[in-house]
Amino acid sequence: MGKIKVAHFICDLLPGGGQRSTIDLIRSTSSEVDNYLILLENKKAYGVEDIKTLSICEDKKLYKRLDIAGDYLLSRKLDKILKELQIDIVISHMEVTAKVLRFINIPKIYYMRVDITQELRSFKEKSFMRYQKRKNIYNKVFGDQNIITISQDTEKNLLNFLSPKKIQTIYNPFDAEKILQLANEKVDSPSNDYIIQIGSGIKKKRQDILLEAFSKIKNKKIKLLLLGTEENEEILDLIEKFNIPKNRILFHAFATNPYPFIKNAKMLVMSSEREGLPRVIVESLILKTPVVSTDCDTGPREILVDELKKYLAKVNDPDDLAEKIDLALQSYPEITNKYIQKFDKKEIIKKFLLFMKNL
User: Which of 97, 169, 173, 168 is nearest to 359 (CA)?
Assistant: First the structure.
């Protein structure tokens, strides 16, 4: 009997934690599983020459305008590919791909990389009708399905409104050895002491909160490197608003290898108001780089445990975030392997393969 054929279905290969986690999962299971990567739209930033990759369309904008009808049309294209490849199981890694996959009758797993209950809470505050509509869609898509969550908090939150067939938390796999190896590559990192933040988007990553906190910290010499953010008007306006000398903010475009930048940083800061299970926190701890993060739903509190709990800041509170950055710059506990053991690639992959075999 040959290997089981698995199709991993994601939106695109643009910069993002979900994309990187999917690529890692495919590479980590390649000896056990015949993996295929199917993109909803053909957009790429990551090199995946070693992975069999196909795409459904060049751009999903037209289909998005058609709403449910657009999802159905995309599902027909996906169904054709799955049949041609003779796929045994398909795994949706994103909410947008889950809405397409719902129309296809094939053994499937929904990998919940974000906590959709956070989005529902946001809808409920703004418009009850939109909240009800989205909740109904999610119940239709994920109800009585096989679900993997990437954090314990997400699993608990989902069970408050969903009744899945099977649900289990399986953390993202991390290859510590490879991360340490890649961190030794030479890059043009800043020569001065710096704090690093990874990922772009003022709203998505709450860079406005981070910049305000940075303006309040005691150390007025340390710089802030925004990795994955190119210089833009919005950030420049915030720098001016918070009276931060422009030479203290360093911009750097997306880097396929962020590890040397993390390794050389004095600290990594995450200021998000929502996450799934933030990869960059685990990667920083692997590289022994101190971390300060907002205590957002979900993820950070499952990584920064024990002595590292005190470096969790209140969400959307620049004063508290500044206080935690000051505290971490002053002193930080030794980062031992106990913080990263539960994210070890070998154990995670065992759990994932067992979940698939038990379907």
Answer: 168
pTM above 0.85, yes or no: yes
DSSP 8-state assignment for residue 184: T
Task: For residue 303, give both structure tokens.
Answer: 């990584």
Q: What is the 3-state secondary structure (H, E, C) of 66-96?
A: CCHHHHHHHHHHHHHHHHHHCCCEEEECCHH
Superfamily (CATH) of domain 4-173+344-357: Glycogen Phosphorylase B; (3.40.50.2000)
Residue partners of 25: CB distance under 8 A and separation at least 6: 8, 172, 173, 352
* In the chain, % of residues over pLDDT 90: 80
Angle at 273 between CA 315 and CA 37, to 5 degrees: 150
**What percent of the chain lies above the pLDDT cut of 70?**
100
pLDDT above 80: residue 1:
no
Sign of torsion over alpha carbons 202, 203, 205, 209: positive
Task: Enumerate the domain spans of the chain.
Answer: 4-173+344-357, 176-341
CB 112 within 8 A of CB 30: no
Which DSSP letter does residue 173 get? P
Say how far apart CA 282 and CA 174 lie, in whole Å: 8
Helix H or strand E encompassing 124: helix 116-126
Buried (b) or exposed (e) across 209-234, using 16+ Cβ within 10 A?
Answer: bbbbbbbebeeeebbbbbbbbeeeee
> Backbone dihedral region of 34: left (phi > 0), alpha (psi from -120 to 50 degrees) or beta?
beta
176-341 carries CATH number 3.40.50.2000: yes
Give yes or no for a contact between 306 and 45, defined as CB atoms under 8 angstroms apart: no
